[in-house]
Design brief:
- Helix content is about 40%, strand content about 20%.
- It has 17 helices and 18 strands.
- A five-stranded parallel β-sheet has the order 2-1-3-4-5. It has a five-stranded antiparallel β-sheet with strand order 10-11-12-13-14, with helices on one face.
- Helix 4 crosses helix 15 and helix 11 runs parallel beside helix 12.
Length: about 425
């Protein structure tokens, strides 16, 4: 068993990142697909960093969609209101690479993948670099900026810890720490320069090697991880003392003793599994909102979940799916958001008003009217008999969008989030 672990962990450092070349553009789309909508009350999160930010897991390919901690932060935000997230995680990124990337963003200039970091293997890195000028306005309006970085700098300790004596190991640890401190200080200074109001949440680094791998090396790695957390805490204190708001997401402690259950280490890969990414999301959410909302997964074959203004819509009139559209009882949504509705027997139509928006929905009509303008819908409203009652069921997306609400569907949870 020991031989297996040593062999596997030695190979983990490089090849797991090399494998990213083969997986194509599986991660979140670069900046052009996530530009701001200009809604004043939208909560904006920009996530910078390495493969942890990207949400990488082994076995991903060009068709894979990550479900990492950043994706979960979008969920958490939607429980609080309108939320947009830009995921700028780059596979294999080190602190020096992040420094170069953020400097280019600060300067509003394009940068090549090689200029970001020599030998960077992420196939999307060139596009991220080319669109660096577009990231500046994203960061300028961000409420929160999350950063995961340092793992690729520190991973050499996993490979060399067993070959160095205590003095040599300590000396190398301090060298790496100094590099980290210098680069991260530059990153934070530039982020603050772009957006002085943003809260920066900086994660410490979990140690992925379980004790079973090498009982002699494990304490050394845990000691280094502990020192790293203290280093980040010290940096955060210095930033805060100088007027830059930096919080520390203490993710490392969540993995202690659970390295085998919260990472893919059994697959010779150090990245978190779904349990690990969920733990990271919880720590980040607690830093951002003060709490973590446990999401409910609505299984296939059951009605989808509907969250309106952060609250679950509970109703005996269950949503139904017609022609791949979700339909809901109109009165449920009206009541949930505090809108007003009026029914016309003469025209078989319902008029819903909310603020300066008016939506008229006619039973059987292929269109709805939004402030007098006809908008096509792929499936019309209909009367749905539930017990002895007849309820008007309307296409959820058409109603919510027509009233100016933000509507986001989460396929993982089978839940639609509606925020006025």
């Amino acid at each position: 068993m020991l031989k297996f672990w040593k062999k596997g962990l030695t190979r983990t450092i490089g090849p797991v990142l090399m494998a990213a070349v083969l997986i194509g553009t599986w991660a979140a789309a670069p900046v052009s697909a996530q530009e701001p909508q200009g809604i004043n009350d939208t909560f904006h999160i920009v996530s910078l960093g390495d493969s942890l930010t990207a949400g990488y897991e082994p076995g991903m390919n060009i068709h894979s969609k990550p479900y990492g901690f950043v994706d979960r932060l979008l969920e958490q935000g939607l429980y609080h209101g309108r939320t947009e997230v830009a995921n700028l995680g780059i596979l294999g990124l080190k602190t020096g690479g992040l420094k170069q990337y953020v400097q280019a963003i600060m300067d509003e200039r394009a940068i090549t993948a090689e200029e970001i970091q020599t030998g960077l293997k992420d196939p999307r890195a060139g596009q991220f670099g080319a669109e660096a000028p577009k990231v500046n306005p994203l960061l300028a309006q961000a409420d929160v900026i999350t950063v995961t970085i340092g793992g690729n700098d520190m991973m050499e300790l996993v490979r060399t810890a067993g070959t160095l004596n205590e003095e040599e190991l300590e000396a190398r640890v301090q060298e790496l720490f100094q590099t980290y401190s210098d680069n991260v200080a530059s990153v934070v200074d530039n982020l603050h320069g772009i957006n002085p109001e943003a809260v920066i949440v900086l994660a410490d680094q979990y140690q992925p090697v379980p004790e079973i791998a090498d009982k002699a090396v494990y304490p050394k790695l845990m000691e280094a991880a502990g020192q790293f957390t203290k280093l980040i805490e010290g940096l955060a204190k210095g930033f805060n003392d100088s007027g830059i708001t930096v919080k520390v997401a203490h993710v490392a402690k969540e993995f202690v003793g659970s390295e085998m259950t919260m990472t893919h280490i059994l697959k010779e890969d150090i990245h978190p599994n779904q349990l690990g990414y969920e733990a990271m999301a919880r720590i980040f959410a607690e830093n951002i909102w003060g709490a973590y909302t446990e999401p409910v997964v609505n299984e296939a074959g059951t009605p989808m979940g509907i969250i309106v203004g952060g609250k679950e819509l509970k109703t005996p009139y269950k949503p139904v799916i017609v022609k791949n559209q979700n339909f809901v009882a109109i009165q449920d949504i009206v009541n949930a958001v505090g809108a007003k509705s009026a029914w016309s027997n003469k025209t078989s139509s319902a008029t819903i008003t909310y603020g300066d928006k008016t939506v008229v929905i006619k039973i059987g009509s292929p269109t709805v009217k939004v402030n007098g303008t006809s908008v096509s819908v792929s499936a019309p409203a209909f009367l749905n008999k539930i017990g002895k009652e007849q309820k008007i069921y309307v296409p959820l997306a058409a109603l919510a969008s027509g009233l100016g609400f933000d509507v986001q569907y989460n396929p993982k949870l089978r839940t639609v989030f509606i925020n006025p």
